[in-house]
Amino acid sequence: MLNAILVDDEEDICDFLKDHLEALDFSVVTTVSGELALKMIDQKEIHLALVDLRLLTAVTGLDVIRCVQQKWPKAVVIAMSGYVDIGLRQETGKAGVHGYFVKPDDVQPSVFKEKIKMILEENKKKKFVL
To answer: What is the pTM of this model?
Structure first.
């Protein structure tokens, strides 16, 4: 089974997205804390990471993304944000994320399913972990 980590400061979003990722046969861990996410990343291999960029903790979403990429370079990483911040979005592009979800639009059930399947399929073709 493939492992996913979902990091978002909104528990409702974590619960919702977890259900959808489990339906795609991922084993999913969630957290609202950047600090806890860093610990979870070290505990087992990560194949997919969905990370909110604006966490309400000292460890930012970008910090979490960089940690995933350093520890698990073949993982598929998707950034999420509910804020329009061109600079931050450019930073995620430079960090090499595989996708970017705008909340709340891209986390609606039909949109999320389609976008996540598309990103996973693209990365399967590129021979990432999936």
So the answer is: 0.89
Round to whole Å and give the CA distance between 98 and 36: 23
Domains of the chain: 2-125 (3.40.50.2300)
Helix (H) or strand (E) holding 76: strand 76-81
Residues 9, 61: Cα–Cα separation, whole Å: 10
Listed in sequence order, the DSSP H helices in 1-130 are 11-23, 34-43, 61-71, 86-95, 109-125
pLDDT tens-digit map of 65-112: 999 999 999 999 999 988 766 767 677 777 789 988 988 888 888 899
